[in-house]
Specification:
Blueprint lengths: L3 H7 L1 E4 L21 E13 L6 E3 L21 E2 L2 E2 H9 L4 E4 L23 E2 L12 H4 E2 L5 H11 L2 E6 L6 H12 L6 H8 L10 E4 L12 H12 L10 E8 L3 H12 L11 E8 L22 H28 L6 E9 L19 H16 L4 E7 L9 E4 L2 E4 L1 H9 L6 E8 L3 E5 L2 E5 L3 E7 L2 E8 L6 E8 L3 E9 L19 E5 L6 E5 L3 E9 L2
Parallel strand pairs: 2-22, 3-6, 3-14, 6-9, 9-10, 10-11, 11-12, 12-13, 13-14
Antiparallel strand pairs: 1-18, 2-17, 4-5, 7-8, 15-16, 17-20, 18-19, 20-21, 21-26, 22-25, 23-24, 23-26
Helix pairs in contact: 5-6, 7-8, 8-9, 9-10, 10-11
The chain binds alpha-L-arabinofuranose.
Length: 555
């Protein structure tokens, strides 16, 4: 494995100099070195409330996400709550997981929710959408869905965590009436309908009050291969006169893949052909962006373009972050396209799949389809992505990291009685206090980094992040992508005074560091208190780190 020193020798050209002169009277820092960066938090420039749902999750019936990751069964020796993995529930409570999307993904458009209700032993076994990508090593439940988990179990999982369920309906292979009846099964009042009785017979007499509903998934691809116009017609059909049972249903349209501006534009154009009032039926448009192409422009081939989760060079470290950085332009770009027809910005962006996607080979459990091993690189990617969402609170109403456990950018890995929190899971711990906070415009100034990208000098920013305030607590999160250098940042609170502060960060001497079942604590958060003077702070932000500063403000 390449260590930081080797990285310096082989990959880095060093950092450009940008120095801030020490201020007169800055005596508390007399033993510190000069700041090379600044973070200016502008209290009089609030950007809006950060929707807690930006910190949402995605759990598809794919590989070992559901069976083994979430569901172990009531008779399992693995500690469980009604068959659901207890350790997972406990950690998701800790990070205040706000919303979980299920059952897909591509799986959603092959799923009949009616297979997953009623007595467990009577539920049918069905071929899973992902059966073709499963290997001989994977258990039968990954190929042939036993339907042990259905709507009841999933909603129960959400309730145990305190999260909202977000259900994705099947538009490709079920009629609109099946969607309507799924809503009826979940939300119709006790005793009101036959489906409410069926729900009650399973032990759930109270309605589930499911608010978030996806109308299909990736309808431009696995969800039906529609054109945007065709899908808009389907969306109107599936969303017209849905019974609400007193719940405000928030319908989410299948949105663009990465920078497919045409999908966003043409979908909305067709929707409003029946009048602008149609926009009221759409709560959000789902954007998907996976950072998969690490080929540095050499190919667009889905397989050939992918990098390795564990074996990577310095240039790949930066390449992944560059691919992740695209998210900001996608959010502002699609927002701009939406505003061409949705002048009041009724339709929000829902980034309901995001994360890095590597080639197979780093699975924690052999045979788990699409499982990859998150490293420190993915922790930085995740912190950076969450900061982007925090900086656009008026645009992004929900985001769902793909996927929760045993999959792509997972917060957790689990197999039988083994469970580990990945560096990505650690980042969600650090960022939880942003949920519901008021995002503040914050200016990060730091020297650019330079590195060798195929014989040419490439640049990357030296420090970025976000800030939010809730009552008297300010949270600043920041990503330092330099694998070698700390950033010494002067933090200036413009319009508030700091009383005391603490800093928690995730880093490691090895940029490839990751947590395994055998070494679960290789990458863990470290906390230290931070001195404050005159309302300002000087902080050392370690190399290759994600940092959260919690600052108590004077009243
Ligand atoms: O997250 C894995 C898959 O990626 C999802 O099923 C699909 O929506 C996307 O293409």
């Amino acid at each position: 494995m390449m260590r930081r020193r080797e990285f310096l020798e082989q990959g880095m050209f060093g950092t450009a100099g940008l120095c801030f002169a020490p201020k007169a009277g800055w005596n508390i820092f007399s033993n510190s070195r000069t700041a090379d960066s600044r973070i200016d938090v502008l209290f009089d420039e609030p950007l809006g409330t950060i929707s807690p749902n930006i910190y949402g999750h995605f759990a598809e019936n794919l590989g070992a996400v559901l069976y083994d990751g979430i569901w172990v069964g009531e008779k399992s020796k693995v500690p469980n709550t009604n068959g659901l993995r207890t350790e997972l529930i406990e950690h998701m409570r800790k990070i205040k997981a706000p919303v979980i999307r299920y059952p897909g993904g591509c799986f959603a458009d092959s799923y009949d929710w009616r297979d997953g209700i009623g007595a467990s032993e009577k539920r049918p076994r069905r071929t899973n959408f992902w059966a073709n990508v499963e290997s001989d090593k994977s258990p039968a439940s990954h190929r042939y869905d036993p339907n042990a988990v259905g709507t009841n179990e999933f909603v129960h999982f959400c309730k145990l965590i305190g999260a909202e369920p977000y259900l994705a309906a099947n538009v490709r292979s079920l009629p609109a009436s099946a969607f309507q009846q799924w809503v009826e099964y979940c939300n119709s009042p006790t005793g009101s309908t036959t489906l409410a009785d069926t729900r009650a017979a399973a032990g759930y007499s109270e309605p589930f009050h499911v608010k978030y509903w996806g109308v299909g998934n990736e309808s431009w691809g696995c969800g039906g291969d529609f054109t945007p116009q065709e899908y808009a017609v389907e969306f109107r059909r599936y969303s017209t006169w849905l019974p609400s049972y007193g719940d405000e249903l928030k319908l989410i349209a299948s949105g663009p893949n990465t920078d497919d501006w045409n999908w966003t534009r043409e979908f909305l154009a067709e929707i409003v052909r029946k009048g602008p009032g149609q926009l009221r039926h759409i709560y959000g448009m789902a954007l998907h962006h996976y950072a998969w192409n690490l080929s540095r422009g050499k190919t667009q081939d889905w397989d050939a373009g992918k990098g390795d989760a564990l074996k990577f060079e310095p240039v790949d470290w930066f390449e992944l972050l560059r691919e992740g950085e695209r998210m900001e332009g996608l959010v502002t770009g699609h927002w701009q396209v939406l505003s061409e027809m949705d002048h009041d910005h009724h339709v929000k962006l829902i980034v309901d799949e995001w994360g890095p996607w590597y080639r197979p080979g780093s699975e924690a459990t052999s045979g788990d389809a699409l499982e990859q091993m998150p490293t420190l690189r993915d922790a930085l990617f995740s912190g950076m992505t969450l900061d982007i969402f925090n900086r656009h609170p008026e645009k992004v109403a929900m985001a769902n990291c793909a996927q929760l456990v045993n999959c792509l950018n997972s917060l957790y890995l689990a197999h039988e009685d083994k469970f580990v929190i990945t560096p990505v899971g650690r980042v969600f711990e650090l960022y939880a206090s942003h949920q519901g906070g008021n995002s503040l415009r914050t200016v990060f100034s730091a020297p650019n980094l330079h590195y060798d990208r195929d014989g040419k000098v490439a640049s990357y920013w030296g420090l970025k992040g976000s800030a939010s305030v809730r009552g008297k607590e300010l949270t600043i999160t920041a990503v330092n992508p330099s694998p070698t250098d700390s950033r010494f940042a002067e933090i200036a609170l413009r319009g508030a005074m700091a009383k005391n502060a603490s800093m928690t960060f995730v880093t490691h001497a090895d940029i490839h560091a990751h947590n395994t079942f055998d070494q679960p604590d290789a990458v863990v958060p470290q906390t230290k208190s931070q001195s404050v003077s005159g309302g300002n702070l000087l902080v050392e932000i370690p190399p290759a780190s994600v940092t959260a500063l919690k600052i108590q403000l004077n009243s």
